[in-house]
Amino acid sequence: MSHANAAMVLLSGGQDSATCLAWALERYARVETVGFDYGQRHGVELVCRRRFREALVEAFPRWGERLGDDHVLDLSALGQISETAMTRDVTIENDARGLPNTFVPGRNLLFFTYAAALGWRRGVRRLVAGVCETDYSGYPDCRDDTVKAMQVTLNLGMEQRFVLETPLMWLDKAGTWQLAEKLGGEPLLDLIIEHSHTCYLGERGVRHDWGYGCGHCPACLLRAEGWRRYRAVR
Ligand code: ZN
After folding, report:
1. Rounded to the nearest whole angstrom, what is the distance from the C-alpha of residue 107 to the centroid of ligand 1?
2. I need a surface site. Which of 9, 137, 142, 174 has the fewest CB within 10 A?
């Protein structure tokens, strides 16, 4: 496999990583995906990411030809050591510093490290993640500086030349919907609405125009608001 033409997408099953998968498939000849099972409260996203991949292959055969293996890694130790609203059944709130308790310390740093270790074995140098600093939920590990520092650390520590790509870094949520439309039009928007999962509580009972979710957790509010702004400017 040519290094230059292959990418590994960190696919959680959410709107952002689903959009990143389409973005990577448009650019690279071979795209693999990696997901992490860390005991997340919204473990349903692991089912959604699989369904999204399947639906994507069906709706976009040209992308299906490029889509390679999916890897789901067990990071249950992260869930065991994390006292957060993402891994425990507690109310979502902010701490004294303003940091939401949905923040799982070390999560993205571990994700990148595991993705790089996997990429090493698979001969994939480009790691694509849907982290974003614009609308971000206050997570320090989604910042551009964090990702850039991580790239340097991985390259020094593994004697490699990984490139960490973050196509959504400077987009807000409305911009992410716009990017999806540009990549795959209404059919891709429909797949993201139907199959991607954002809600922190794992709710998929009610379908809104922006997708499934409780409609009131911070993740649902951000997704719904982005959708509203995106539709308003169309
Ligand atoms: Zn929700």
Report:
1. 20
2. 137
Please give the sequence-ordered ranges of beta strands (E in DSSP) within 29-98, or none if there are none: 30-37, 67-74
Look up tokens 């960490």; give the residue: 164
Which residues neighbour ligand 1 (ion) by CB within 5 Å? 199, 201, 213-214, 217, 220
Which amino acid appears at position 162 of this protein? F
| Tens of pLDDT, residues 2-46 | 567 999 999 999 999 999 999 999 999 999 999 999 888 788 888
CATH class of 3-232: alpha beta
Q: Do the beta carbons of residue 106 and residue 78 sit within 8 Å?
A: yes
pTM, full prediction: 0.93
Contact residues for 58 (Cβ-Cβ < 8 A; gap 6+): 64
Query: Could you identify the residue written with the tokens 């987009």?
Result: 171
Q: Which of 182, 209, 180, 217 is nearest to 193 (CA)?
A: 209
Listing DSSP states for 159-210 in one string gives TS--EEE-TTTT--HHHHHHHHHHHHHHHHHHHHHHH----TT---S-EETT
For residue 95, give both structure tokens.
């701490």
Distance 204 CA to ligand 1 centre (A): 9
CA 211 – CA 190 distance, rounded (Å): 9
95 CA to centre of ligand 1 in angstroms: 20
Residue 88 CA to residue 200 CA, distance in Å, equals: 11
Could you read off the pLDDT of 212-234 as tens digits, one per residue? 999 999 889 999 999 999 999 87
